[in-house]
Write a structure and sequence with these properties.
- This protein has about 350 residues and is an alpha/beta fold.
- The chain has 2 domains: about 260 residues, P-loop containing nucleotide triphosphate hydrolases (Rossmann fold), CATH 3.40.50.300; about 80 residues, Immunoglobulin-like.
- It is built from 11 helices and 17 strands.
- Helix 1 crosses helix 11.
- The two termini are about 40 Å apart.
């Protein structure tokens, strides 16, 4: 089974629209597809005509182990099965707090049906938390829809860093493709976004661009895929083209995460040094054992040096870092602590938080 997750922590970028229509077009090509909605908003179900009162067992019950996964499967279309969600899924992270292996609940649930399908399509929530983590652990490939907004481009930069962190922690490597979505190429800005994405990620962008199309929104409001609603519109042609590209990669997944260049790298001129020396400092008692660990050292604690500054006991370490976002924490006498001088934090995917620094 080929497994693909639609991911972007920014909402409104076409993630659910792509999940529904890619799954539908793949099923129309004779592939057996399972669509799983990990978004508590439940829009994938609505987009396929399923009302909340029709969903007896959702992905929430599956992840909690209340029902086997086959009891939650709906069959809204030929060759297309789906497991829907609803608002109760928003409680998943809180309910699972402190539970062992909660990041692998979806993977464990899928074991019994993995051989029943050609494709698994996952619609992720617009956040990078426990639900998205479950989806990324399961999948081999990630499609990141990006629309025409500076917020979306910024979210892409952060998401690529987050995926890299997840890969390092889980040793699970992902193939990433970027999809320009909801693009109005009649405008200079729309064309600029497509050109920028292709310039930054020439090997990782789909050739297909999903153009702005009112019929796509209309189809979703009627609980239909665009293939069912209007095969004459540009939206259908775009998703057919995307499907052909996805099918073309069946024999070879060509691009690895390591091939991606972070957005910030394009801002540097050839020959310009990317590394900067960053000083981490922390006040702690003289007799303490003070260490730091983060993305920059594979989370292997390194000791800090003690100096006295204006009567204060200051521990410090200088680390050379290339531009980007880094998560880290201090370790004082074996106890993990956030950086008290840095208010920027991020979910560590295990129920806690890390300090975040942008270089």
């Amino acid at each position: 089974m080929r497994k693909i997750a639609l991911v972007n922590q920014k909402g409104g970028c076409g993630k659910t629209t792509t999940a529904i229509n890619l799954a539908s077009c793949l099923s129309g090509k004779g592939r057996k597809v399972l669509l799983i909605d990990l978004d508590p908003q439940g829009h994938s179900g609505l987009g396929l005509g399923a009302t909340p009162d029709q969903i007896e067992n959702s992905i929430y019950e599956v992840l909690l182990g209340k029902v086997p996964i086959d009891k939650a499967i709906h069959s809204p279309r030929r060759n297309l099965d789906a497991i829907f969600s609803n608002v109760v899924l928003s409680a998943f992270e809180q309910v699972m707090a402190g539970t062992r292996e909660r990041e692998y609940r979806l993977e464990q649930s899928l074991a019994d049906i993995a051989d029943h399908y050609d494709y698994l399509i996952i619609d992720s929530p617009p956040s990078v938390g426990l639900l998205t983590f479950n989806g990324l652990v399961v999948t081999d490939e990630v499609i990141i829809p990006v629309d025409t907004s500076s917020f979306s481009l910024h979210a892409l930069d952060k998401l690529l860093n987050t995926i890299e962190i997840i890969e390092e922690k889980t040793q699970h490597h992902l193939f990433i493709k970027i999809l320009a979505s909801n693009i109005d190429r009649r405008t200079r800005f729309g064309r600029h976004v497509v050109e920028k994405l292709n310039g930054l990620f020439p090997e990782n962008c789909f050739k297909t661009v999903i153009n702005t199309c009112t019929r796509l929104r209309e189809a979703a409001s009627h609980g239909k895929s665009i293939a069912e609603y209007d095969k004459q519109c540009a939206g259908f042609r775009d998703y057919q083209s995307l499907t052909e590209e996805v099918l073309g990669d069946e024999t070879e997944m060509k691009v690895k995460t390591a091939a991606l260049k972070p957005l910030w790298e394009a801002e540097f001129l050839p020959g310009q040094s990317l590394e900067k020396e960053i000083a981490f400092t922390l006040e702690a008692p003289v007799g303490a054992t003070v260490q730091i660990a983060g993305d920059f050292n594979n989370w292997a604690p390194e000791g800090l040096e003690l100096t006295e500054s204006q009567g204060r006991q200051v521990w410090h370490k200088v680390v050379s870092l290339t531009p980007g976002y880094y998560q880290y924490k201090y370790l004082i006498d074996g106890r993990w602590v956030l950086d008290p001088a840095n208010g920027q934090t991020a979910d560590d995917f295990f129920g806690g938080a890390n300090s975040v620094i942008k270089v």
